[in-house]
Amino acid sequence: MLDELSHIGRDPATNGYIRDAWSVSDLELREWFRGEAARRGLDLREDRNGNLWAWWGDPSRAPGVATGSHLDSVRQGGAYDGPLGVVSAFAALDVLKNRDFRPGRPLGVACFTDEEGARFGVPCVGSRLLTGVLTPERALALTDDDGDTLADVLTRAGRSPRALGRDDETLGHVAVFVELHVEQGRGLVDLGRPVGVASAIRPHGRWRFDFRGQANHAGTTRLEDRDDPMLPFARMVLAARESAAKHGIVATVGRTRVSPGNANAVPGLVSAWLDARGAREEDVRAAVAELGDLAEGARVSEESWTPVVDFDVTLRDRVAAVAGSEEEPSPVLPTGAGHDAGILASAGVPSAMLFVRNPTGVSHSPAEHAERADCEAGVVALASVLEDLCR
Ligand code: GLV
Ligand code: MN
Ligand code: MN
Predict the structure, then answer these.
(1) Is the domain of 25 the same as that of 81?
(2) Is the CB of 176 under 6 A from ligand 1?
(3) Ramachandran region, residue 138 (left: φ > 0; alpha: ψ -120 to 50; beta: rest)
(4) Distance 115 CA to ligand 3 centre (A)
(5) Pocket test residue of 119, 339, 343 for ligand 1, highest count of atoms within 8 A of CB
(6) Ligand 1 atom at minimum distance from 364 CA
(7) For residue range 46-80, what is the model confidence (pLDDT) as tens digits?
(8) Which atom from ligand 1 is nearest to the alpha carbon of 277?
C-alpha cells in the first residue's frame, strides 16, 4: 500500500512529499482511501469536517474501536508520517480477517483531514473541528498562501463549509482510538525495540508574529531613514533559541512570509511562525511571553495551543502488554510531536498510540524512514491490540 501511494505528491527533485489538505494530491489520497475501504467491503463515511471513516460493523448501533492517522504531509515531508498509520490500520484489519476474527464491536479505520496544518497554519484541523476545540468560524476564515480561505477551498472541493463543527454523532461512534505512527525521534533506536507505546504528548503551540515596517527602496533609502521589520524579526529568532535553552524547551521558526518579497526593497511586513514545545506548559508559556515582550511592536497571535496529553494509563499499559508481552511489554515513551490521537484524548475519548522505530530518527523530512520488518511488526502489534479491544 505504501508503494501504491509513493508517487502521490512526490517532488522528484527531493523525494519529499507535498500533500497539502484539499490539494489535488490530497484528493487523490482520499480517493485511494475510499478504494481500500470499498475493496474490503467497509462502510465509508465522511464526517461533517471531512474526516474519513471506514467501518467494519455499524457504529451507530454500538460505539466501536477506531484506528488510523492522516494522509496529508508537511511540505517536503517523508513517506511515513501519517500514511504509515492509515496503511497499517487497513493491514491490521486484513490480519484479523485472515485470523477469522469476528469483532465483538465495530472496528473502524480513520483518516483525519489536515493534520499537519501545512496549508492553513493550524494543525489537526479535522480532529479539532470534530471535537469542537476549533470553531468553524475561525477555521473557515483561515487563509492559505494564495489568500484563499478554507471556506473557498472546501467549496471548490465540493464540500459545504456550513457543515463544519463539533460532531457528536461521529464522536459517539468512537469508544476507543488507537493511532499507529512512525517514531519521530531516536527513542526506539536507542532502546533497540521495533515498536513502542506513547505515554504523553508534550504541550505545544504555534504563534504568528507580524513585524510591520515601511517598504522602501534598497538603494536610495539611507540606513537612518529605514523602518525595516527584518531586524526585529532576526532578533526574535535569535532570542527564541536563547529563551528555549534557558527554559529547557524547544522553539523553532520554520515558516516566514516576507512582503512584498523584493530583493531590492526593504520589506513592509515580515510574518514568522514560532513553534514552541516542552515538557512543562509553564516553561513554554514563559518563553513565548518573553519573546512577545522582546518583539514589542509586533502583533502576536496564538494560532494553536495543545495542552499536555497524558494518555490513559490503564489503556496504555494494556496496549503495551498486548503489543509486546506480559513479561516484556512494549516500551512506553513520550513524544514532542502532535497527533490527532492527542486531540481525541483531550476531548475524553480513551486513546493510545503505537510508535514504529525510525532508524534515522529524522522526521518532517524525506530522510524519515522505517524498515519493512518494523512496519510489519507494527501491523502485527496493532492487529493484536485491536483484537483485544474488540473482544
Ligand atoms: C505534527 O507532526 C507536529 O507535531 O507538528
Ligand atoms: Mn507530522
Ligand atoms: Mn503525523
Answers:
(1) yes
(2) no
(3) alpha
(4) 7
(5) 339
(6) 2
(7) 999 999 999 999 999 999 999 999 999 999 999 99
(8) 4
Sign of the Cα pseudo-torsion (176, 373, 111, 354, in order): positive
Mutation to probe ligand 1, out of 116, 207, 309 (largest number of atoms < 8 A from CB) = 116
Domain total of the chain:
2
Cα 65 to its chain centre, rounded Å, is 20
The pLDDT of residue 20 is 98
Are residues 96 and 157 part of one domain?
yes
Contacts of 39 (CB under 8 A, 6+ apart): none
Rounded to a whole number of angstroms, the CA Rg of the chain reads 22
Here the CATH number for the domain that contains residue 91 is 3.40.630.10
Alpha carbon of 142 to ligand 1 centroid (Å): 18
User: Cell 532502546 sits at which residue?
Assistant: 191
Q: Are residues 73 and 167 in the same domain?
A: yes
Residue ending a domain, choose from 272, 289, 306 = 306
Shortest-distance Cα residue to atom 1 of ligand 1: 338
Q: Are 226 and 216 in contact (CB under 8 A)?
A: yes
Domain that holds residue 114: 2-202+308-389
Q: Is 118 in the pocket of ligand 1 (CB under 6 A)?
A: no
pTM of the full structure: 0.95
Residues 283 and 315 in one domain: no
